Every structure is written in structure tokens, then in C-alpha cells.
Amino acid sequence: MDAQRKPSFASAIGLLVAIFIIFAVGIGLLNYPVEFTLICITIVTSIYAGYYGGSWSAVMNVLVGKIKDAVPAILLLLSIGMLIGSWMVSGTIPQMVYYGLAVINPAYLYLTAFLVTVCISTFTGTSWGTAGTIGVALMAVASAMEVSLPITAGAVISGAYFGDKLSPLSDTTNMAAIAAGADLYQSIRNMLYTSLPAFVLACIGFYLLGNHLSGGSSAQMATIAVMKSSLSSLFWLNPLLLSPALLVFYGAIKKWDSVIVLVASSLFGLLLSLVFQNIPLADMVNAVINGFKSEMLPGLQTLTMDEATAKNINVLLNRGGMYSMVGPIVVMLCAFVFASALDVSGALAVILERLVKKLNTITRTLLATMITSSVLVACTGNAVISFFIVKSMYDPCYKEKKLHMVNMSRAMESGATLLEGLFPWTISGMFMAKTLGVATLDYAPFVLFNLCCLLMAVLYAILPRWTNFGTRFETAEAHSQA
Q1: Could you read off the pLDDT of 94-143 as tens digits, one per residue?
Q2: Cβ neighbours around 466 below 10 Å, total
Q3: CA dihedral defined by 299, 305, 307, 312, rounded to 10 degrees?
């Protein structure tokens, strides 16, 4: 076979344009599965690589290296699925939701909605689950009080994405760290630079937006009361059920191995379910492997609930299990094959030769990472896909400047994860609009945490012109040189 030839700059740009078009049409217009779209662009990219002398065996060699590096991450994702199933069957997550509902204060509905969803999403690691459960109850309260539904939806989504960005249980948080090649907990700590100021600004904003509201009547609180009553009837709720969650966060503080901590917390949750919940052992094991189902609860058949409450209970409880992580793992593997073909094609290397000359500062590199992540998530509708493409594009720039990969992880989360739910055509945007009953463009101006976090990320990208505060380098020598 002939030696591999170097693509021209025009053909390399043409390949990227073709990839973006396939993403936009396949996912955005035709609503095809992400996996199928990735397979299509992998075929196109592989043909392109073959035209310039690249071989399929070369793609496989690159893929083997990527999968080898990703094995710990795959184990982590499976452990998270196991953990969520265990926390459901033990009553740990229902206990968190119950406490969250208990502290809702209609006099400060917007601020309360934000703080409650922050707590729930941080412990559960899911923005969709938080919005689909607590968020639905909060929207019902807001409707009964006749207050602004777009602002309430903005507060719910803001809190939901706080946990989706910072929780060690979040799939996007894990995927961003995996794609960037950064340690999960180091990545989370680095995101605190932008998230904590954004959290404070969001609290101030929601307080000012809602300081004119008055307390709700008992009738207006009926939705929350029914949800609390249903949870307490289905589970034996008590503070001890929070101990598996405390174990995870203690392990994070002590920097213990993530997989070991998550598995230990899962087994602890199963032990608590044996003690406190009247659920057969076979169902407990099934919840850990295949996911928890509300039908496993003996009291469900005797509990009288209206249709809306029953739906909310099912949305809250039916989740978790190791097999629930098969989907994200398959997407990750498909993304790895595509990224491997893209590496072998040489197209990114050609573009980066031009791009690196322009990205001659830390500020430009970080801003380019955020902008590219935003454009990709707008085109593909999926933040995870954008993570792996951005990694392939900008990895040489970060290595050249000795920037630690936690900076890339934070920039990708700021540009992709936080904005994914603000585009009406993305899956997250459609889910939030449908679940909360508010159009995407109506709630978008009030998703204060996401918007403030993006602004803080831009600020930290500009700061290196004067100070490197908030920017991490591979070595102390690299920091001093910068």
C-alpha cells in the first residue's frame, strides 16, 4: 500500500463540514440514534482516510489504545449504574427527594426551587431525573400560585444542571473528564472556580426575582404534600438512609478510588434495604443489575394515587442498574471509533497546523475550546459527542502550552453541557420544554446558573493575560513560565 499522503487544508475543512452536516441532519432533522449517526460519519471518515493512504488496521490500532485508556472509565460508569439502583431500592434517593420537598417555601419559590434542585441533582447526578420529578412538583406549585412559569422553569433547570456539572454521579461530568483525559475529582474541583461564583450570582438573581412573592395556602401546597405522603408510604424513610451518600462524599474527600467507593456504597445500600425496606432479595439484586422498578414495592398496589402522582413516582423511581449504563458506553465506543478514524485521516493535524498559529495564547485556546463545544452541541444535540471531537482537535494546543487537561474539561462543560438544554432542537432542550411545560426560548433567559457559569468561564479564559488564577498547569515550572 502507498504511504499515507497529507490531505490539503481545503479537503480537511471539507471533511469537517461533511461531518457537521451528517450530525445536523441525522440527529437534528431526522432524529436518528446517536450511535447510527456516529457509524455513518465513521464510514465517511474511514473512506477519506483510505483515499489518502490510511488503513483500517491503523484505525484499529488507535482504537485499541483509546479503549485501553477508557477501561477504568467504563468500570466507573457501570459502578454508577449499580449505585443508583442500590440507592433506589434502599430508599436513599427517595429520602433525599422527601427532604427536598419538605423545605420548599412558596414565599421564596424561585430561590427555593433552585436550592432544592441543586441538592437533589448533586446527590443523584441527573438533570433529567431532577427536572422530571422535583421539577414537575415545583412547576405545579408555581402554577397554583399563579407566578411566572418561565422563571420557575429557569430555576429548576439551573439547579438541575448544577448537579449535572459537579456531581461525581453525572454521566456528562464523567464523560467530560474521560474525553479530556483528566481525573474526575480533579476536574470537579477545577470547575468550582466557575461554579461557586455562578451559584452565588444565581441565588442573588432568583431572590431578587421572587422577593415579592407571598406564602402559599394549604391548597397550593397539596401537590407537594401528596408527593411526600406517597414516598413515605412506599418506603420506610429515616435519616440513616443518607449514609451511603455520605460514604461517597467522604471517599471523594479522602481521594479513595472511585470504583471501590461506589461499589462499597452500593453494597451498603443493599444492606440498608434489607434492614428497612420490605422488598424481596431477588428484586434488590435485580435493581442493582437491571434497574429499580416501582413494581418492586409491595405497597404500590394498595396505595391510592392520582394519575399525575403515579407518573411522577414512576419517573423518580424507575432508574439505575448496571445495564442503564450500556447506552452511554456504546455511545462512547462509537465515538472512539470515529475519533480513531479522524486521527488516521490526518485532517485534524492539517487544520491544527493552521489553527495552532492563531491559538498562540492561553486565552485564545480556552475560548476556542468553549466556542467549538457550543457549536458542536448545537449541531449534534449531544454534549458527549462534542467532548471527544474537541479533545481530538485541541489536545496538541493544550500539550504545547503545558495546560492541565482539567482546563479542557471545564471549558467543554461550560460550552456544551450548560448550553445543551438552551437550544430548542436538542434532545435536552426538547425534554426540558416538554417536561416543565415551558418553551425553551421562554425559560432560556432565566437559567441563571448556566449563563453565569458560562460568563465566569469566559472570565477565567481572559484572566491569564494578567494572572493565572484558576488556570492549572501540568507542572509548577510551566505555571511560572506562563
Answers
A1: 887 788 777 776 678 899 899 988 988 887 777 876 787 678 767 867 77
A2: 7
A3: -70
Per-residue model confidence as pLDDT tens digits over 446-460: 999 999 999 999 998
Q: Which DSSP letter does residue 297 get?
A: -
CB-based contacts of 60, cutoff 8 Å, min separation 6: 340
CB neighbours (10 Å) of residue 358? 11
Distance CA 167, CA 134 (A): 17
CB-count exposure of residue 465 (10 Å: 0-12, 13-18, 19+): exposed
DSSP assignment of 83-145: HHHHHHHHTHHHHHHHHHHHT--GGGHHHHHHHHHHHHHHHH--HHHHHHTHHHHHHHHHHHH
Q: Where are the alpha helices (DSSP H) in 8-91?
A: 9-23, 34-51, 56-90
Global pTM reads 0.70
SS3 state of residue 165: helix
All cell numbers assigned to 355: 489553527
Residues facing 58 on adjacent strands: none
CA 4 – CA 345 distance, rounded (Å): 9
Transcribe 307-364 into DSSP letters. Answer: HHHHHHHHHHHSB--GGGGHHHHHHHHHHHHHHHHHHHH-HHHHHHHHHHHH--SHHH
